[in-house]
Write a structure and sequence with these properties.
It comes from Cellulomonas soli. By secondary structure, the protein is mostly helical. It contains 8 helices and no strands. The chain has a domain of 133 residues: Orthogonal Bundle (Tetracycline Repressor, domain 2), CATH 1.10.357. The protein is 72% helix and 0% strand.
Length: 201
C-alpha cells in the first residue's frame, strides 16, 4: 500500500471550516492593507505577510491580485452596507431626519473603527474587474440615505444625498487626524440639518 505521507494540519474541526477560516484571514488582511495603504498595497506577498500565511496559501484561494483586491473591496462595502441599513431601519421614530442622523452616526463610528467606503476609496488603482462592482456597492451604500433624503421633499435628491455623504467623508478625515468622534458627529449633524432645511425651502 502506497504511503502518501502525513495529512496536512488543519486549524479547525473540519477541512471545510479550515478553508473558511483561512479565506477569512486572507480577506481580513487584504482589507487592512486596502484601508491603510490603498489598492496598490494589496498584493499576495503583502497579504501573506499580514495574515501569517504562506504566499502559496493566498494563491490557493485567490489566483490573482485582482481577485484578492476584489474580495477585499467587496467585504469592506458589504459590512458597511449591512450596518448602515440596519441602523437606518432601527432609527427611533422612523422619520426621514432620524434615519439620516442614524446613517451619519453609524457611518462615522464605522469609519473611526475601521477603514472603509467613507475613507476616500475610489476606483483609482482598482483593476477593471473591480470597478463595476464598486459602483454597485457604492450605490447600495447610498440607498438608505437617498431614500430618507427623498422623503424630506428636497428639490434635488441626488445633489443633497451627495452633499450629505461628502460631509460624512470630510468629518471622517477630521477624526482620522485626531478630532474627537462625538464632537465631530454632533457638529456634522448640525451642519447637515442646516443644509437639509435650506434644501427643503
Amino acid at each position: 500500500m502506497r504511503d502518501n505521507g502525513p495529512m496536512p494540519r488543519i486549524d479547525a474541526p473540519t477541512v471545510a471550516e479550515h478553508h473558511v477560516m483561512r479565506r477569512r484571514a486572507i480577506v481580513s488582511a487584504a482589507r487592512d492593507l486596502l484601508g491603510s495603504a490603498g489598492a496598490s498595497a494589496v498584493t499576495p506577498a503583502a497579504v501573506a505577510g499580514r495574515s501569517g500565511l504562506a504566499r502559496t496559501s493566498v494563491y490557493q484561494y485567490f489566483p490573482s491580485t485582482g481577485a484578492l483586491l476584489a474580495a477585499a473591496v467587496e467585504a469592506t462595502f458589504v459590512d458597511a452596507n449591512d450596518a448602515l441599513a440596519d441602523a437606518v431601519a432601527d432609527a427611533p421614530g422612523g422619520d426621514p431626519r432620524s434615519r439620516i442622523h442614524a446613517y451619519v452616526q453609524v457611518g462615522l463610528r464605522l469609519a473611526a473603527r475601521d477603514h472603509g467606503p467613507f475613507h476616500q476609496l475610489t476606483l483609482t488603482g482598482l483593476p477593471p474587474e473591480c470597478t463595476d462592482r464598486v459602483r454597485e456597492l457604492h450605490d447600495a451604500l447610498l440607498a438608505p440615505l437617498r431614500a430618507a433624503v427623498e422623503e424630506l421633499g428636497v428639490r434635488d435628491t441626488t445633489l443633497v444625498t451627495g452633499l450629505v455623504f461628502g460631509a460624512i467623508s470630510a468629518a471622517v478625515q477630521l477624526v482620522d487626524h485626531g478630532r474627537d468622534l462625538d464632537e465631530t458627529t454632533a457638529g456634522t449633524l448640525a451642519f447637515i440639518d442646516a443644509g437639509l432645511a435650506a434644501a427643503a425651502c
